Structures are given as C-alpha cells and as structure tokens.
C-alpha cells in the first residue's frame, strides 16, 4: 500500500514538473494580447472576424492607422484564426489564417516586461499580414488572396 502511494506521489510530482516546464516553453507571461493593425493606406477599411474553438469575437472594422485588440489567458492549445478582408479599388482582398498559436507565442509575440501580457502585433499592409516577433522585428507571414 505504501509503495503504491509512493508511486502515485512520484507520478504526480513528475506531472507537475512536466507541465510547468512545458508552460515555460510556451510563454513567459500569463496573458496574451493580439493586435490587428491597419497599415493599408488612407481610406482603406479593414474588416476582421476572429474565432477560437470556444469564442467568436464577431466582425470589427478597423480604419487606417487604427488597431483592434483582444486579450485572453494563456491556456494549452489556444489558437485564434481570423478572416480578414478589405477592398482594393473595389476588388476583394482577403485571407483566413491563424493569428495566434500559443505554441508560437514566444516567437511571434513580444514580452515588453512592463505588464502581464505577451503583445502579439499583426500588421495588415498592402502586400500581406506581418507578425511581430520576440525581438521586435516584423516579417510577412501571409499573402493576401486577391479576387
Ligand atoms: C480619402 O477620402 C476622402 C473623402 O472621401 C478624400 O477627400 C481623400 O482624397 C481620400 N484620400 C485618398 C488618399 O484617396
Ligand atoms: C484595446 O482594445 C480596447 C477595447 O477592447 C481599447 O479600449 C484599448 O484602447 C485598446 N488598446 C490598444 C493599445 O489599442
Ligand atoms: C527576429 O526573430 C525572428 C523570428 O525568430 C527571425 O526570423 C528574425 O530574423 C529576427 N530578426 C532579427 C533582426 O534578429
């Protein structure tokens, strides 16, 4: 009986250690804030519709030089994807891709050390969507689909 309890106790400790270790790989912060910025140019309105498995954030219009953000607690497997579109001279321009993946948060989000958030900036430009990285640089992650 005592041996059995020891085994269970050991398994529990192992589980706790492994889960703490995997959390620290994912992100150094407890919360994330995702920003979608419109850097398309004057008079171009961007529309976004983001979802996770559990949440539908609805449609939001973002004017040029404005941004939209939402925040959420870190949890295992969190993924947000967005349908994002605008009109380039009346032609639909769109994409439907992941904007936040908790497994990539430590690469694609910035910990500014000021608050409890990882800041994940996604910038819409005429040629595609750019993501912020941990080191402050931006790279293009997705091209638009042009109708
Ligand atoms: C944006 O729209 C305003 C009002 O419709 C217009 O006066 C302005 O010239 C437009 N700017 C550009 C860059 O198209
Ligand atoms: C984030 O969005 C909230 C509304 O949900 C707004 O009040 C706040 O100003 C936004 N923050 C930034 C930095 O854009
Ligand atoms: C910043 O990090 C990203 C992702 O890890 C990498 O692709 C990029 O080359 C880095 N940029 C600089 C200037 O180090």
Attribute tags:
single chain, 147 residues, alpha+beta, Immunoglobulin-like, six-stranded mixed beta sheet, five-stranded antiparallel beta sheet, 20% helix, elongated, binds 2-acetamido-2-deoxy-beta-D-glucopyranose, S-protein homolog, self-incompatibility, secreted, Self-incomp_S1
List the SSEs and their pairings.
Blueprint: H1 2-26, E1 31-38, E2 46-51, E3 56-62, E4 67-73, E5 79-88, E6 91-101, H2 105-108, E7 110-111, E8 117-125, E9 128-132, E10 138-142, E11 145-146
Parallel strand pairs: 1-8
Antiparallel strand pairs: 1-4, 2-3, 2-5, 5-6, 6-11, 7-8, 8-9, 9-10
Structure report:
Belongs to the plant self-incompatibility (S1) protein family. It is found in: Secreted. This is S-protein homolog. Keywords: Secreted, Self-incompatibility, Signal. Residues 1-28 form the signal peptide. The chain has 147 residues and is α+β, with helices and mostly antiparallel strands. The chain has one domain: Immunoglobulin-like, CATH 2.60.40. It is 20% helix and 49% strand. The chain has 2 helices and 11 strands, in the order αββββββαβββββ. The chain has helices at 2-26, 105-108, and strands at 31-38, 46-51, 56-62, 67-73, 79-88, 91-101, 110-111, 117-125, 128-132, 138-142, 145-146. The strands form 2 sheets. Strands 1, 4, 7, 8, 9 and 10 form a 6-stranded mixed sheet that branches. Strands 3-2-5-6-11 form a 5-stranded antiparallel sheet, with no helix packed on it. β5 and β6 (91-101) form a beta hairpin. The model has no long low-confidence stretch (mean pLDDT 89). One 2-acetamido-2-deoxy-beta-D-glucopyranose is lined by residues 42-43.
